[in-house]
Amino acid sequence: MRREFALLSIILFVVSVSLLVSIIAHYIYIPGINIRPLAHIYLNTTYNLVNRNFTANSPEAVTAIVWDYRGLDTVFETTVFYLAIIGSIALGRGLFKFSKSSGETGLSIIVKSVSRITTPMIVTVAVSIALHGHLTPGGGFQGGSTAAVAPLIIIIAFSQYFLIERGISKDLMLVIRSLGLLMIGIVAITAYFIGVFTKTPAFVLQNQAKTVSPVSLPAYLGGQLISGTLWFFNLAEFFAVLAGFTIVILLLVIPERAFKSDVK
Amino acid sequence: MIDPQLLVLGLAALSSLFSVIAVYLAIIEKDLVKAVVFSAIQSGLYALLYYILMAPDIVLVYIPVAIGLYPAIILILISKTEKVEKD
Question: Of A49, A224, A226, B71, which is most buried with the most CB atoms under 10 A?
Fold first, then answer.
């Protein structure tokens, strides 16, 4: 009874606060549904074939902002995520000497069959989200975190030995993750080194040509729009995030008996 | 005829209201597994809210992280400790 009363009062509180905010908002300024001036700048420049001064050649303004206009922020975000993964690996060091327990592992045959069908679908959608990140909503992090659900489902439905027996170990994931980060770094400084070798001014994390520096990475590859650096950043971030999440899940599902026998 | 925009905003208001209820239930629930499920329900409603507020990029990262990875990791952690919260 007391619980229902608390639930009712919290609903009433939320409704009354919402009502109050609505009434107050009627008398003060509320942002309209028109496009704001800042959004105008981005929407005008993100895919502008006429005025190429500040364009990113990507119809997806969010990915253009994340990897081009504010590219340095995202590079450091990726670094922070990398450090978090390094920390969790450091906590679980020396914990990989355990053997498979005898008998049937994983969940029932129904769950396994459903997982066999859905896991490839999840990976397909994830790759689509990541590789179309410069055209439609999505990007490297979105695609990578979607793809990380697939190893999670495999671990829960089939047990972690299913992955380990097929070579998907912590070390392989760490290699993939480091390669992804290396690729992000290389793509970030490509335009700068083109500028160094051709004796023209260019910037780190530059994508398309600006008024002060004519260096421009190819926006089209074989007739397909890849938006210069954006496609490569999304691809590298996809693998980095997928491998990072997989490492954490692999570390978390280690049975405790393995750890205890290792300590003795 | 109801204005479609009003209908969508009403849906947003309803989902935010239900998300508050889900948060409340997740906090007071003593069974931690049920609490994780309530938290995932709240995340699903938030994903709907993000979609209504026209942020599809956030929806795409919120659904796998907040409904897939986060409850699964918390459930793995709960399976290594006790399933019921004690006073």
Answer: A226
| Residue bearing the bigger pLDDT, A100 or B2 | B2
**Residue whose structure tokens are 């399933």:** B83
Please report the residues numbered 238 through 257 in chain A whose beta carbons come closer than 8 angstroms to any beta carbon of chain B.
245, 248-249, 252-253, 256
Which of B28, B63, B72 shows the shortest C-beta gap to A152?
A: B72
Residue B6: per-residue pLDDT: 79
Report helix, strand or coil for A224. strand
Q: What is the pTM of this model?
A: 0.86
Q: Residues A73-82, buried b or exposed e (16+ Cβ, 10 A)?
A: ebbeebeebb
Residue whose structure tokens are 């969508």:
B8
Cβ-based contacts of B28 with chain A (< 8 Å): 3, 6
Test B24 with A137 for CB contact under 8 angstroms: no
Domain range holding B70? 4-80
Mean pLDDT by groups of 10 residues along chain A of 264 residues: 81 84 74 77 86 84 89 91 90 68 77 93 94 90 93 89 83 92 92 89 85 83 85 93 92 75 58
Sorted by sequence, the CB contacts under 8 Å of residue A32 that are 6+ apart come out as: none
Total number of domains constituting chain B: 1
Q: Is residue B86 part of a domain?
A: no
- For residue A258, what pLDDT is reported? 64
